Hints:
single chain; 270 residues; alpha+beta; Alpha-Beta Plaits; Sulfite Reductase Hemoprotein, domain 1; 3 domains; 5-stranded antiparallel β-sheet; 6 helices; 12 strands; 24% strand; globular; binds iron/sulfur cluster
Amino acid sequence: xxxxxxxxxxxxxxxxxxxxxxxxxxxxxxxxxxxxxxxxxxxxxxxxxxxxxxxxxxxxxxxxxxxxxxxxxxxxxxxxxxxxxxxxxxxxxxxxxxxxxxxxxxxxxxxxxxxxxxxxxxxxxxxxxxxxxxxxxxxxxxxxxxxxxxxxxxxxxxxxxxxxxxxxxxxxxxxxxxxxxxxxxxxxxxxxxxxxxxxxxxxxxxxxxxxxxxxxxxxxxxxxxxxxxxxxxxxxxxxxxxxxxxxxxxxxxxxxxxxxxxxxxxxxxx
Length: 270
Ligand code: SF4
Ligand code: SF4
Ligand code: SF4
């Protein structure tokens, strides 16, 4: 098994170091961290870095013999090598400041990265958390995907008929809302529990009743992309952790070497 985060490259004796941020934030970089990365790229590499799809940063062209020295400097500011080979890939979430967020998931993702840091699994495994159904971090093509949900309710606060909840870009994407003279109506058959309408409704005529998480499993990108299957809905972050624990334990116990979760679900069923 290779060392986490060390990527072989075309250049002999030089490697790319894949690093991720875990402290003080997961997948977010402070000015100090950016400065350290820039210094390392200048001093030990070729002066450039690459930002990966999984919110890690690769510093290429580092001499293999200097890796321990470099990782020591990175570790002093909360940056760690990892997210490669069969080490669980960096768990990612969409940004905490997005207007569509049903629930900001950055801090929860940091908690998950701390729990599962460098866990070794039978095959490449990615876990992604999205704050809404747009799934910007590809939760539906991940081995385990999580999407935040919001059950909504209509309140007795008078609707101002502003139409923000039905207009692009922040309104309902599935035409589940009708505005009438008497107030707002929701078509519960159409509603996909994205919560967008609650983000724009200033008078609180529509609000979030409860939040939950949908879990999807067995998706992947790559040569043969596959959409993950809906697995279950759970109501708390603790339950998400419990379900991920169970899924990874099961994966470890039944997968053959190199098999991804999608392969296992194809072989054994969901
Ligand atoms: S998935 Fe939704 S909440 Fe997350 S960044 Fe995309 S639009 Fe925003
Ligand atoms: S929560 Fe339901 S009604 Fe509100 S915007 Fe989303 S789909 Fe539309
Ligand atoms: S429900 Fe809220 S956002 Fe929608 S039209 Fe009424 S006041 Fe505006």
